Amino acid sequence: MGSATRVLVVESKADLAEGWVRHLQSLGVSVRWEAEADLAIRALEQERFHVILIDLMLSEGGALAVADYARFRHTGTNVIFVTDTTVFSDGSIFGLMPNVRAFLESHTPPDDLAAMVQHYARPI
Cys staple from 71: which of 32, 34, 99, 100, with CB 3.0 to 4.6 Å? Predict the structure, then answer.
């Protein structure tokens, strides 16, 4: 990856988010972390990201709203959803949100998450 790769992490569980952020930063990725959907949308109003790594079940606000906003405002930004639930486990999320590229378990190893981010990061 590299310093040119920018990722928005949207996760309300601080311990999980901090682990992702630390791991991505150790690989040279520029990371911004927001814990709520409205703050994530504000971040998208201020800057562009290659990838949004977002928990489907945020404690404040809707993750789908963030992905939808990114789809209209930043068409080149890819979304990776993570979750600890079975919601959308049938893959229907890919039909609802065309910018969603992956749907992973919340406790996916950081190396695997980083590989997904690297794969879906592209020039914006």
Answer: 99
Q: Which helix or strand (DSSP H or E) is residue 51 part of?
A: strand 51-55
pLDDT tens-digit readout, 34-62: 999 999 999 999 999 999 999 988 888 79
In a domain, 115, yes or no: yes
Task: Check which CATH number belongs to the domain holding 23 and give it.
Answer: 3.40.50.2300
Record the tokens describing residue 94, joined without a space: 């890919």
Query: What's the predicted TM-score (pTM) here?
Result: 0.88
Domain that holds residue 46: 6-120
Per-residue tokens: 3? 């310093």
Question: Which residue from 97, 86, 4, 8 is spatially nearest to 44, judged by alpha carbons?
Answer: 8
Residue 75 lies in a domain: yes
Q: In this structure, what are the phi and psi dihedrals at residue 77, rounded to the nearest 5 degrees? A: -85, 125
Order of all β-strands in the sheet with 30-34: 30-34, 6-10, 51-55, 78-83, 100-105
In degrees and rounded to multiples of 5, residue 104 shows phi and psi of -120, 160
